[in-house]
Structures are given as structure tokens and as C-alpha cells.
Amino acid sequence: MATRLTRLIRGWVSPAGQHSRQGGLDRWQSLSHPVPGHSTIDGLPVAVVAVRRRDDSGQLEVIRGYHPTPAWPGSVAPPGAQRHLVPASSFNPHPRREISIGDQRFGYNTVAGSACCNSCGKGGIGFGFVSADSSLPSAERSPAIHQILCELCAEKQAGVAVL
Ligand SMILES: [Zn+2]
Asked: Taking CA 86 as the corner, what is the angle to CA 80 and CA 87, rounded to the nearest 5 degrees?
């Protein structure tokens, strides 16, 4: 009796895919959160915040300034903010986000469009954690091979490592 009721309630509550987003028309992908950093606009180094990216052209849409600020506390950019396009390769996140997994350090950065997460195999991630050259003096391990992890896998693995 009780189980039947539960099942019934679960049936009522079950949400039917409310967020069917329109896709396909716009090849720009919003970043899950704004990424503050530095880039070059009109030949000058400037502080910018990356908000969207394109896989096919390797471009980032950025807004001049910093994040978060009192004028822009959340993830949605203030209306009227002037946007610029820069090559993703010219963008350097700042301040740098670093995490440690085991004895390896990973820094958050842009990754090539063809790069995949070494853990889950997800491609087209745009941003990810890239293994930094280890500063350990004893480290003589394959400096040419950089490991790339998507944000989700990196945080999961770093979380496991901490425990
Ligand atoms: Zn992954």
C-alpha cells in the first residue's frame, strides 16, 4: 500500500524535460562560469573575462574587466557590456586556478579544440586542467606529455586525493 502510494507520487512529481534548449543556430557556447584572465586586444594586454567560446574557430568572446566585481557578481554578464573576440590561444586565465592530483599539479587553462579529457574522454571542452611541469627536483617523467582533464574529472580526482 505504502509503496504503491510512493510510486504514484513519484509519477506526479517527475518533471518532464522542461529545459529543452534551442540549439544548432548559434555555435557559441556559454562557459559554465565566467573565466577571468588576460588577453591582447588591439595589440595591448588587457584584463578580460571569457564568457563564451566557439569550438570550430577556436575563438573566445571576452568582456574587458574583472570578475567577480560588485557590478558583475554572478555568472550572467551585465547588459550592455562590450564584447570582443580573441583567439582562445591568446587567453591566459588569471588568477590561476591550480589543483593537485597525487603528486601532479594541474593548472586551469584553454585547451585545443581537438583535445579530450584523459579521464572520461570528453572532447570539445575548451577549458580544462592541464598538467604543469612538476617542480619536484627528482621528476624526470615525460615532460612532453601533458595530461588534460575536464573540470569535472579534475575536481573529482582532486577531491578523492584529498580524502
Ligand atoms: Zn573528464
From this structure: 150
CA of 141 to the centre of ligand 1 (A): 23
What is the model's pTM? Answer: 0.74
For ligand 1, the distance from its centroid to the CA atom of residue 45, given in whole angstroms, is: 32
Separation between Cα atoms, residue 35 and residue 86, nearest integer Å? 14
Q: Could you tell me the distance, in angstroms and rounded to a whole number, from the CA of residue 120 to the centre of ligand 1?
A: 4
94-103 pLDDT tens trace: 999 999 998 8
Residue located via cell numbers 627528482: 138
Name the more confident of 6 and 69.
69
With 0-12 / 13-18 / 19 or more C-beta atoms within 10 angstroms meaning exposed / middle / buried, residue 111 is buried
Question: DSSP characters for 123-150?
Answer: B--SEEEEEPPP--TT--S-TT---EE-
Are 55 and 124 within 8 A, CB to CB? yes
Residue tagged 551585465 (cell numbers):
78
Region of poorest pLDDT, from 10-14, 32-36, 138-142: 10-14
Distance of CA 108 from the midpoint of ligand 1 (Å): 13
C-alpha cell at 121: 574522454
Instruction: Give the distance (Å) from ligand 1 centre to CA of residue 153.
Output: 4
